[in-house]
Amino acid sequence: MGELVELLKSSNKTVVLTGAGISTASGIPDFRSPGTGLWQRMDPNVLSVETLTSEPEKFYQHCIEIFTPILKAEPNSGHYALAKLEALGYVKTIITQNIDGLHQKAGAKEVLEVHGHLRTGFCVKCLKEIPLTVLLQRVKEGEIPPRCPRCGGIMRPNVVLFGDYLPDDFIQAQREVASSTLLLVIGSSLEVWPVNTLPSLAANLAIINLTPTGYDPVARVAIHAEASAVLTAVAAELA
Question: Which of 12, 188, 202, 209 is the most exposed place for a label (fewest CB within 10 A)?
Answer without folding.
Answer: 12
